[in-house]
Amino acid sequence: QLAGLAVIAFGLWLRFGGAMADFASDKKSPDYFFMGLYVLVGAGALMTTVGFFGCCGAARESQCLLGAFFACLLVIFAAEVTAGVFAFIGKKVAIQEAQKIYEDTYDDYMKNPGGKVNGTIYRYHLALQCCGKDTMEQMGLPCPENIQVPKASNCLVEIHNVIDAYLHLVGIVGIAIAGTTVSKSMFSL
Q: Which Gene3D superfamilies would you find in this protein's record (predicted)?
């Protein structure tokens, strides 16, 4: 149960906290962008529920409940491995999609600097602590005042760095929790 709650908390933190939340707040963000996180949160919720029933089965020494617990843990194991593998393999596609969304927003802003895209591009710049696609194109962009100088040059590089780091973390956590799930299923047998 505790591992399930930890997976839920970790998945929700990555989804709604920090720079990743700013990527998701834009209407242009694709649904599959956070698929690995959704699978982790779902697996965590299932782990918490199944953990409760596993405790009941162990307390009552019910072979039926413990067998059902084992079967559910196998399904959870498959979901966690899928999330981990998706995070590692789908990294490149997710980075390209996020960079394309930024470039489209950037181009929309350059066509109409006073439009409603202004807030969106500012959120990207604030979340990533960068400004623009190149150092030469930063003139007139809504840039945060307190950005760090080394990061200020290229938002496309920062998008790559942030998504790479977060999806790498999702993959590691997914596979690590899958390992604990296998050990719990062995104990139930």
A: Tetraspanin
CATH architecture, domain 90-188? Orthogonal Bundle (1.10)
Q: Is the dihedral of CA 87, 91, 96, 102 positive or negative?
A: positive
Contact status, residue 155 vs residue 130, Cβ threshold 8 Å: yes
What residues of the chain score a pLDDT lower than 50?
Answer: none
Of 10, 19, 30, whose CA–CA distance to 84 is shortest?
10
| pTM to 2 decimal places | 0.64
Sign for the CA dihedral angle at 103, 105, 108, 112 comes to negative
Helices 155-188 & 91-111 angle (0-180, nearest 10): 150
Specify the residue for token string 């029933």: 53
Count of C-beta atoms within a 10 Å radius of residue 64: 9
| CA 75 vs CA 29, 42, 65, 180, 182: distances in Å | 29, 11, 15, 14, 11
Instruction: Judge contact between 56 and 187, C-beta under 8 A.
Output: no
Q: Please calculate the CA angle 76-77-80 and round it to the nearest 5 degrees.
A: 85
